[in-house]
Amino acid sequence: MKKLIYFNLMMLPLFGMAQSIDRTKAPAPGKAPLIQVGSPVKFTLANGLQIFVVKNTKLPQVSATLAFDYDGFAEGDKAGVAEIAGQLLKRGTVSKSKAELDEAIEFLGGGMSTSSGSASISSLKANFPALMTLLAEVVLHPALATSELEKIRKQTLSGIESNKDDANAISGNVVKKLVYGATHPYGEMMTTKTVNNISINDVKSFLGTYWKPNAAYLVFVGDIEPAYAKTLAEKSFGAWAKGNIVKQNFPKPNLPNSTYVAIVDRPSSVQSVVTIASTVDLYPGSENAISGSVMNNILGGGFSGRLFSNLREKHAFTYGAYSSLTPSRQVGFFQADASVRNDKTDSSVQELLHEINIMRNEKVGDTELSRMKNYLSGSFARSLENPATIADFALKVAQFHLPADYYQKYLTNLALVDAVKVQAAAKSFLNPSKMHIIIVGNAKQIAKGLEKYGPISYYDLEGNKVAAPTEVKTDASLTPEVLMQKVINAVGGKEALSKVTDVQMKGTASIQGQSLTMNKTLILPGNVSASMSMGTMALMKQMVVDGKYSVSQQGQQMPITDDVKEGLDEDATIAPEQLFLSKSYGLKIVGIEKVDGKDAIDVEVTTPSKKVSHRFYDASTYLLVKTSKSEEVPGRGTVTQQEFYNGYQVVNGIQLASELIIDLGPMKINVKYSDIKMNQGLKTSDLK
Amino acid sequence: MRLKFLMAMVSVFSISIAQAQTHAIQFEKYTLPNGLKVILHEDHSAPVVAVTTLYHVGSKNEDTARTGFAHFFEHLLFEGSENIKRGEFDKYITNAGGALNANTSQDRTFYYELLPSNQVDLGLWLESERMMHAKIEQIGVNTQREVVKEEKRQRMDNRPYGSFLTEVLKRSFKVHPYQWAPIGSMDHLNAAKLEEFIHFYKTFYVPNNCVLSIAGDFNKADLKNKIAAYFGPIKKGENPIPRPTIKEPALGGEVRDVIQDNIQLPGVFQAYRAPKQGGDEYYAFNVLSTILSGGESSRMTKTLVDKKQQAVAAQSAPFFNEDEGLFITLAIANMGVKIEALESSMDSVISDLKNNIVGEREFQKVKNQITTQLVTGNATMAGIAESLANNEVYFGDANLINTELDKYNKVTRQDVLNVAKKYLNKDNRVVLYYVPKEKPTTK
């Protein structure tokens, strides 16, 4: 029986094989499909809560999202309160601890998430009513416990702290502040100060002001009857009292009078984060929103964008260059950005502006346009597979007052975009004469040449205007040799140094929250053993003992090259400056640079094997405050290692740095020596 | 009170089963004269289509001196065909707004393209080109050999604990080809001649060793015509398709070893020999695994990570295949925790499972989690197409996609206790300690 059916089915396609195909080339796409986005059924509860139900019975699954009609507000000296409130909501209710709440959600096989402007749940249909009860409990009766607030505060502060080292995070903050303005809700910045200002009452006041049923949508998507959704909504949120809606007043950000360059000086940067940005008159559903999106994708929408092929493929200035164009109910935003090598900063700005100008001045070709339209229509169609996309559409249609069939007609409208419309969009959204060009990088190395794009001004990490870093000249009479003598004297002087026979330093190092043991023992002249270990296991060990050099990493011996020997020889001294003067080292005073806010003299040191590094000495105390060294690492490009020296202690008249920060870019090692002993009579046989 | 609550939960659960069953995945299955099995699931809810091919070839079909071939082909078959220029395969897909990828297991290789539905022909063309006359040339072999080496470096050599599967497999199996991982041996790939690759292609990448599974927004009658046009002319394979018949004997005693790796935190990997996929015990094992590591409130997470804080991560990983299975539990030690202490805690979690029947509430929770997973697993066209093809190839029953939940529902608390007692024994396992490369200098 079964075989027979197979037989028949098998024959059918053979008989119907009239269709001929040409397999030498790719088949043409069929007609753009008509998108069937379910129209939501809408209700409004007595308290003003608007309910949308997008019924989709494909799976016995339901999700609900409670979304507030909330664009943000000026948080002022409590910036961050909304974000923290969003996190705090899910950390327990008046009747359930955080652990109990998590268990209850998991028992239903469901999930829940909360943020400053929304709360959502998702589960199988059968468990959905119970999960809905938990959602109502979280929204209406959250615990908002101080102890949980403190946990979040701690995490947030450590996040802010680590962002201070992150050029991209700095750039993101400063770009927002300069483009939107400091008092605009989109331009505000969370700082240690504002986060510390936030109290549990501020969280309660935020939720009390903005989380109101008459300013919210509850969107159900999935296998649920609209009438039942309404019943559930009534049961869960019907008793929620409506309140006054606070009118949010957003100042309209001004465009700069003319294009200018803002530099955030970050002397340690080996790459510049370049952003060219402005606000744009682009709102969800704007007539030119779709042609704007096509235009932006052609310019910098990914691997096939023009910025990518110019700055990466053609010029190799960067690993990636992109642009984005974002509509918003308040004000839209455009940016083109790339992280580029220091010496290519000027050229990169030029190429970014060049591509922006071409986009405005020339019509896009047919092939490029149709390829982009295919890509966008395909991505759109695929995105619809996720029911969350449909919920998102329903919400946007309501919040932004879009035509009810906006998303149904998206592909048809996309198909109508032509080269004329793309160019028109470029002319309205890209205005190269009124742009913010914001660069986070090493001002000394990159500023030259940038003035041709507009006046240059300088900003600190928090986007406050600061004076241009002044070029401090070093005293012309200061020769490298004189400076080395001053340094040796600052450390303690030749005589005191000659009395040191051994130094033993013990301490700890912390790397990304992990604590390691650091040991360094010097036996003078010329012997050293330094190790970094975890428990009893050595992660790294370097030594010179009686002229024998060895370096091991996790037990593996590393090759000993001339420059490794030179490095170890420097380590085997208290003041390597003595070594620099006695051997054939090249020394050059480069200038003055700020290190931790203080002037330091930058000396370029070239070793006998021609390895170049920089040492920075405090301009008034002459103590070493920083070293910097760059190396080519195969596969990773240029990697820069910086070391910062602090916490000088005087032992037997000798200045020793008890604190050291080793900065490897993405990773930092903080070393603290708590136990320093000198002249214990150690022998080289003690060095293991 | 408690009983009432439990009863309420049971009824909730039975509702969800009933609901799941009403949402059966409809599909049609037929075979072309050249042996190609076709499975079609038509669904117009979104304008997308997943075009997939599943070839019944994995690392277990490889020659002992040519391991890594199946996975190598996963790469090689993107190189192009008589009508697709080198390097163009993925461009066709991205320019159409689609996405594509492939993966290889011990038992099968799976290729898929996700496309907007008006581009379904493109998927048929690409997959039929791949099956009909892929280019197996020295230049492509050389290129992909470098790519695979890079992949091995990135995913196994450079990734902490990345070699664990390879190390576990070679100690768990002595005669069955499951003793090597799909990535195979780079030496074997280096030694292989072009003719060998061509022979492998002609043996395994043939219509009679493949399931073409398509799910999504299409007109079935029309699509069937196109499938016939694109795939009908492909010739049936002429070589016999070798499949291992060898039976792996019992492990015969605990195997222990220490692996030195570039890691900072030691790890414990325990692999228990287990039955092959698809039987009653297999379902009981999956329930057991969810008890151990399904979510924040699962036993391994709660005990080892939260309560004792001995591990930074702990989980169980069922590794069931066509011929044999393994049940793996693993944990990565927290700073300063002795590896022996960690293993002993893992053992006591297992021993609890062997000695005490799981509580009713917990059992219910786990079944609720599994139900959600199974049902939401069918949320995407790609997921449906892959499940249908897997079920057809492994069990000759594509419809298992609709009946698998019944198999889980039959699992009792006693069944879980039984498999724990039968399989989770020391003489049936391999235990690997992963330790940082340099051994501690003191004890």
Query: What is the CATH H-level superfamily of the largest domain in chain B?
Result: Metalloenzyme, LuxS/M16 peptidase-like
* Count of strand segments of chain B: 11
Shape field of chain B: globular
Low-confidence region ranges of chain B: 1-22, 439-443
* Number of alpha- plus pi-helical segments of chain A: 21
Helix content of chain A: 25-40%
- Estimate nothing, just give the exact number of structural domains of chain A: 3
Question: Mind telling me the CATH class of the largest domain in chain B?
Answer: Alpha Beta
CATH fold field value of the largest domain in chain A: Cytochrome Bc1 Complex, Chain A, domain 1
Residue ranges of chain A: pLDDT <50 for 5 or more in a row?
1-18
Q: State the domain count of chain B.
A: 2
Please give the most extensive interface between any two protein chains, plus how many residues each contributes.
A-B, 73 and 77 residues
Structural class by sheet pairing and helices of chain B: alpha+beta
Quick one: CATH superfamily of the largest domain in chain A?
A: Metalloenzyme, LuxS/M16 peptidase-like
Distance between the termini of chain B: 54 Å
**Radius of gyration of chain B, taken over Cα atoms and rounded to an integer in Å:** 23 Å
Query: Tally the helices of chain B: what do you get?
Result: 16
Q: How far from one another are the termini of chain A?
A: 82 Å
| Proper CATH architecture of the largest domain in chain B | 2-Layer Sandwich
Overview of the molecule:
The complex is a heterodimer of chains A (688) and B (443). With 688 residues, chain A is α+β, with helices and mostly antiparallel strands. Chain A has three domains: 41-166 and 179-237, Metalloenzyme, LuxS/M16 peptidase-like (Cytochrome Bc1 Complex, Chain A, domain 1); 260-466, Cytochrome Bc1 Complex, Chain A, domain 1 (2-Layer Sandwich); 480-686, Clam (outer membrane lipoprotein receptor (LolB), chain A). Chain A has 21 helices and 26 strands. Chain A has a 13-stranded antiparallel beta sheet. Residues 1-18 of chain A have low confidence and may be disordered. By secondary structure, chain B is of the alpha+beta class. Chain B has two domains: 26-231, Metalloenzyme, LuxS/M16 peptidase-like (Cytochrome Bc1 Complex, Chain A, domain 1, 2-Layer Sandwich); 255-436, Cytochrome Bc1 Complex, Chain A, domain 1, CATH 3.30.830.10. In chain B, 46% of the residues lie in helices and 18% in strands. Chain B contains 16 helices and eleven strands. Chain B has a six-stranded mixed beta sheet, sandwiched between helices. A five-stranded mixed beta sheet of chain B has the order 7-11-8-10-9, sandwiched between helices. The longest helix of chain B has 21 residues, at 2-22. The termini of chain B are far apart. The model of chain B is unreliable at 1-22 and 439-443 (pLDDT under 50). The interface between A and B is large, with 73 and 77 residues.
